[in-house]
């Protein structure tokens, strides 16, 4: 009797062990097949960029064919896209980018033909003397923004003259000028030298201000510090009004993005970000512009945001539009923003 009980116990234990092994193998198999699928999608993306890297027009055609497929909304396909090949050693021209993006209208405007997007996005680029960077930015971003099925227009806000650069004031100008053209409800502010390398990083607005360039190559694909808000960000019209726009008195390099971060926090908002994987972006390497030296006053100014933000911003903005030009791929507004 005791023998048969032992045997029965052993038999049941073996059955449970075998069953557990089978479950384990099946789960492993499912995960393995899924990872193969993802790797295949990534390899395809790499090939489409790499195989035609000697010919810019051909490269664009490949990207364009991807747009056609995706103009029928397919969430699964959107998720599977992802890492993109972005490099800055190819010759890129405005003409090639124009040819590769036939659906982009005058002024750099696009709207999806088969759906009504929930937001109207104005993309604002503070700018001076960076045509080489702008070529790459337009070359990579127009296809991405179309794949993201956004209603958007590109506004390049060009600072006239040779005085010190003032990034935040140009952002204020971009906001005001864009609203003269259309009732945009979302604003994406992007440096001209930053390109996202994952098109799941949607350039739209969220319930809190969004820091889109969350993982820059320059900082080892990590945040340099938690409060970092530089590079590319998006904010709705309401969010911008809540912080009285941006500071107008940061002349030269640095600090204005920290001031904007303070404004958000002091207005009861927080910064949302994509994951470090999706928020990856590449910066076009360049030497610092001579007219954009470090702003030594920035530390003092950042320490006083709470006192200054209600007096300095959209409600104190003054500038003069010198020229407004509608190009094929973007709208350029040249402005005189004065001096420090
Ligand atoms: C500056 C910021 C800049 C950051 C990263 C900070 O010291 O104040 O404006 O974005 O460094 O370079």
Automatic annotation (TrEMBL):
Residues 210-287 form the Galactosyltransferase C-terminal domain. Belongs to the glycosyltransferase 7 family. Residues 80-205 form the Galactosyltransferase N-terminal domain. GO terms for cellular component: Golgi cisterna membrane; Golgi membrane. InterPro entries: Galactosyl_T, Galactosyl_T_C, Galactosyl_T_N, Nucleotide-diphossugar_trans. It comes from the Eukaryota. Responsible for the synthesis of complex-type N-linked oligosaccharides in many glycoproteins as well as the carbohydrate moieties of glycolipids. This is Beta-1,4-galactosyltransferase. One of its GO terms (molecular function) is metal ion binding. Pfam families: Glyco_transf_7C, Glyco_transf_7N. It is found in: Golgi apparatus membrane. Coiled coil: none annotated. Its EC number is 2.4.1.-. The chain crosses the membrane at residues 16-33. It catalyses: N-acetyl-D-glucosamine + UDP-alpha-D-galactose = beta-D-galactosyl-(1->4)-N-acetyl-D-glucosamine + UDP + H(+). Residues 46-67 are annotated as: Disordered. It is a single-pass type II membrane protein. Its main location: Golgi. Its cofactor is Mn(2+). Pathway: Protein modification; protein glycosylation. It comes from Cynoglossus semilaevis.
């Amino acid at each position: 009797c005791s023998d048969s009980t032992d045997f029965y116990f052993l038999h049941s234990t073996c059955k449970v062990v075998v069953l557990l092994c089978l479950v384990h193998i099946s789960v492993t198999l499912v995960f393995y097949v899924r990872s193969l699928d993802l790797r295949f999608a990534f390899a395809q993306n790499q090939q489409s960029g790499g195989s035609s890297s000697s010919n810019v027009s051909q490269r664009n055609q490949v990207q364009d064919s991807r747009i056609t497929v995706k103009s029928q909304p397919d969430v699964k396909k959107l998720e599977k896209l992802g890492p993109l090949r972005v490099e800055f050693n190819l010759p890129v021209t405005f003409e090639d980018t124009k040819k590769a993006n036939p659906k982009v209208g005058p002024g750099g405007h696009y709207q999806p033909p088969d759906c009504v997007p929930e937001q109207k996005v104005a993309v604002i680029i503070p700018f001076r003397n960076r045509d080489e960077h702008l070529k790459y930015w337009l070359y990579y971003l127009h296809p991405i923004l179309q794949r993201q099925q956004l209603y958007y227009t590109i506004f390049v806000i060009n600072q006239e003259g040779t005085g010190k650069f003032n990034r935040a004031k140009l952002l204020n100008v971009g906001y005001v000028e864009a609203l003269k053209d259309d009732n945009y409800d979302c604003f994406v502010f992007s440096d001209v030298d930053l390109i996202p390398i994952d098109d799941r990083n949607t350039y739209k607005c969220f319930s809190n201000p969004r820091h889109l360039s969350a993982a820059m190559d320059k900082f080892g694909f990590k945040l340099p510090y938690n409060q970092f808000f530089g590079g590319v960000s998006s904010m709705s019209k309401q969010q911008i009004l809540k912080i009285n726009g941006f500071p107008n008195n940061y002349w030269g390099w640095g600090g204005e993005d920290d001031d904007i971060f303070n404004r958000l926090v002091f207005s009861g908002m927080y910064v949302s970000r994509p994951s470090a994987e999706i928020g990856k972006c590449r910066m076009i390497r360049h030497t610092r512009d001579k007219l954009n030296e470090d702003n030594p006053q920035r530390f003092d100014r950042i320490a006083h945001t709470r006192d200054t933000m209600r007096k300095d911003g959209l409600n104190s903005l003054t500038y003069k539009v010198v020229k407004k030009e509608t190009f094929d791929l973007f709208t350029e507004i040249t402005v005189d923003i004065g001096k420090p």
